[in-house]
Amino acid sequence: MEIKKLREAIKAILFVSGDPVSIDRVADALELDRPTAAKILQNLADEYDGEESGVLIVRMEDQYQMCSNPKYAKPIHKVMDMRRNTPLSPAGLEVLAIVAYNQPVTKAFIEQIRGVDCSGVIGSLSAKGLIEERGRLELPGRPLLYGTTANFLRCLSISSLSELPPIPEKQAEEEKADA
Amino acid sequence: MEIKKLREAIKAILFVSGDPVSIDRVADALELDRPTAAKILQNLADEYDGEESGVLIVRMEDQYQMCSNPKYAKPIHKVMDMRRNTPLSPAGLEVLAIVAYNQPVTKAFIEQIRGVDCSGVIGSLSAKGLIEERGRLELPGRPLLYGTTANFLRCLSISSLSELPPIPEKQAEEEKADA
Amino acid sequence: MEKLSYKLPSFEGPLDLLLYLISKNKLNICDIPIAELLEQYMEQIHEMQKQDMDVASEFLEMAARLVYIKTVSLLPKHEEAEELSRELSGQLLEYQECRRVAQSMAASFNLEFFVREPEKIDFDETYRRVHRPEELLAAYLNAAGRGKRLLPPKPEAFSGITHRIVSVSSKIVAVLRRLWTAHEVRYESLFEEKRGRSDMVATFLAVLELVRGKRVRVEGEDGNETVKLMNGGVRHWKLKSYGKQ
Fold first, then answer.
1. Which tens digits make up the pLDDT trace of A135-165?
2. B41: which of A3, B61, C17, C88 lies 20 to 30 Å off by Cα?
3. B21 — alpha (psi -120 to 50), left (phi > 0) or beta?
């Protein structure tokens, strides 16, 4: 397939899939080598990028997803008659921050830092698709581990966890010493 | 909103909706008069039209819908399908093994050996074309019998059931005594 | 320290409350005057209780912890108190940092990205991966014998305990026979001439089974329930399988 068609095919794939699609899947479906697929995907993402663009193609780790530009949330809400997404509570943001910077973490670790029970918040962050279970820790009780999702990256408009703003040095070390 | 932004907003709306959206709803959401909304929608539809375009905007009566170009159905299928072609779970493999070595067998027999309900696994193995129904056993309740398929042979790269590795003697006898 | 008299803000937890008190009184987080802090902390707790707010157990635990730190700091040797204070300071610093990060994250956080539901497509689900036959054998050997451990004990295992096992299917037939002649019977009458617990249990299960199979309907309430045949009482060919004993 020539490059123009490949680009259009990828648009079609991202549109239909809805979910994030990995570079490997695209490469496989179009019979491309991975670097070529990665390059076309990134080109498309750049092309769709733009403050006013209605539809965006965002990258999350090695996956790409088509989504709407939050700028147009209001008319979308109106047409779809959706309930507005309530912003996260301070508690939700705190738990999310702890998970994001220390993942994978147990509930006990989160509660240790916040000093309060966090079951409810963890449940609602899971329901919102911002954190997810990541197996269990091989310790007595086998506690569940939590990490952030691809959706979390999209909500922060970053494409990888490495883009999270760094924690000031001193603080990070203290934390390490405590843990 | 200027015309460029309106166009992008409409793209966003059509993208998120997936379903057809009427001109009236678009006009309402963007606070436009109907003729203006109709004109922008038709312009967009024209722009997204094209034999090779990955995503189309099609008109149906007074509704518009964003959809993928059927031209790219093949790679789309491939990408979406791969998601499902996940490797067999250990449970799936076990049930498959029991069917393979004892066919034709009833669900009750499989559950007797595994000690757990197997309805779900049997259903998914059938959907995957690895096992199939083989009539009924003439006993009270006339339970269904299951056997493996030709596809099963292909998955194991063997040409006949006789090529399955033999079960160690002792094991086979215990089995018989239990059943 | 000034007197606290205002509408109570809600706190995320004891650490949140402590940080609030510390910043309000411009205290040094690394050198907390425990006695003063405890006093203000307790005032807050009492205020919360007065306003009928739910005081979570964590707040009370922290109160106990502060009291303990204060107590040991009154002892002539201070080491333990110092260590406990440092621990509390460390925890507060850590939580403060967590809040700072959360706030900076909030600034760039946006929940208004919308995605589409994946299109519904009918797939050919045929399994196409390739496995080695040995994997299958391994799975077989793994499965074989497990049932012995997991299956419920056979009825014979209880032969020394139970007296009589009444099969549910025999009761299904019995209930249906009555309904074919009477079309409608009182629910309780089904249990009237029963000769023991297992008889009653089997009858009860039989009724449940028939309801589930949409063969009968139970109507009414408060002891006036009746059992009716569905489908106008016409015999159904499927019943033959029930009848086989």
1. 888 888 889 999 999 889 988 888 888 888 8
2. A3
3. beta
Helices B90-102 & C133-143 angle (0-180, nearest 10): 90
The answer as to whether A177 is a domain residue is: no
Report the number of distinct structural domains present in chain A: 2
Q: Which of B21, B43, B72 is the last residue of a domain?
A: B72
B81 touches chain C (CB under 8 A): yes
Q: Residue C186 above 70 pLDDT?
A: yes
Domain edge (last residue) among B26, B43, B72:
B72
pLDDT tens-place string over residues C46-85: 888 887 667 778 888 899 999 999 888 888 877 888 888 8
B123 touches chain C (CB under 8 A): no
> How close, in Å, is residue A55 to chain C by CA atoms?
9
**Domain for residue A81, yes or no?**
no
Residues in chain A: 179
- How does pLDDT run across B28-64, given as a tens digit for each residue? 999 999 999 999 999 999 998 888 899 999 998 889 9
Q: What share of chain C is helix, strand, coil (3-state, %, to 5)?
A: 55, 5, 40
Least Cα separation, residue B143 to chain A (angstroms): 39
CA distances from B5 to A52, A78, B13, C80 (A): 6, 16, 12, 65
- The verdict on A95 and A163 lying in the same domain is yes
Establish if B102 belongs to a structural domain.
yes
Question: Of the candidates A58, A136, A141, which has an alpha carbon nearest to the alpha carbon of residue C110?
Answer: A58
- For residue B47, give its domain range: 3-72
> What residues of C are in contact with residue A56 (Cβ under 8 Å)?
113
Do B155 and B98 lie in a common domain?
A: yes
Q: What percent of chain C has pLDDT over 90?
A: 6
C-alpha to C-alpha distance for C143 and C123, rounded to whole angstroms: 30
What is the b/e burial string over A104-121, where b = at least 16 CB atoms within 10 angstroms of the residue's CB? bbbbebbbbbbbbebeeb
